[in-house]
Amino acid sequence: MTNDRNIRILLVDDEPHILQFLEMGLVEEGYTIKTAPDGMTAVNMAVKFQPHVVVLDIMMPGMDGFETCRLLKKRGTDMAVIMLTAKDEIEDRVKGLKLGADDYLIKPFSFEELLARIEARLRNQFPSLFGEVALGPFRMDDRRREILYRDRVLELSPTEYDLLKYLIINHGIVLSKSKILDVVWGYDFGGEENIVEVYVRSLREKLNDKDHRLIRTLRGAGYRIDLP
Asked: Which residues bind DNA (predicted)?
């Protein structure tokens, strides 16, 4: 990733060593970075900085990440918010999504995974920064809601498009059924997790992926696309 697009990321955490570590890594990747040690500072800073992505810790003294997320989204709904939580609890995840969070990571996490999440949110929410995105054998044009596989246009339903796009932009990352449901169907979806299997099966047919070498199933964990 280069800085020619001036992609801005705001890091919010009350632990200085985490802020320093993430800032160093993301600056090295070419992003423009600002840091905030608490929620109120982040909200005020965001007005002028106008970040594309906010990486936001939940557990902070004073104003916690949930309230910070609510205020950030109230002032700028276009920004993507990735919440960091030390607890893998459904209640925290649902609460964050209801307040407008776009993604979440559970501590401890690798820098590579955070970087992949950031790039996924940018491609998903700011496609104009990229135009047509080429990843491996896929080409995605979000403006046309069109995905080409080996230069062949795939005939996809709206949900199939959203699901395949989510798998592609998160390539190399294992995505659980519950995570896929949260993002593609929405946190308030009342159906069964098996709906994900149905749509993955349909995508495999359209991709001629009979051996499941493109969309891989990791038993008990979820799905993953590996791209060259």
From this structure: 130-227
Complete domains list, the chain, with CATH: 3-125 (3.40.50.2300), 131-225 (1.10.10.10)
- Tens digits of residue pLDDT in 155-170: 999 999 999 999 998 8
Q: For 181, which DSSP code?
A: I
Beta strands 80-85; 103-106: pairing state? parallel
d(CA 42, CA 89): 25
Q: What is the pLDDT of residues 16-45, one digit of tens each?
A: 999 999 999 999 999 999 999 999 999 999
Q: In what order do the strands lie in the sheet with 32-36?
A: 32-36, 8-12, 53-57, 80-85, 103-106
pTM, full prediction: 0.62
**Tens digits of residue pLDDT in 121-131:** 888 888 767 76
Q: Are 167 and 159 in contact (CB under 8 A)?
A: no
10 forms beta bridges with 34, 54
User: Can you tell me which residue has the tokens 């696309």?
Assistant: 225
pLDDT at 163: 96
φ and ψ of 117, to 5 deg: -65, -40
**pLDDT of 5 higher than 70:** no
Q: Locate 88 and state its tokens.
A: 């893998």
Sign (positive/negative) of CA torsion 207, 210, 213, 219?
positive
Strand partners, 182: none
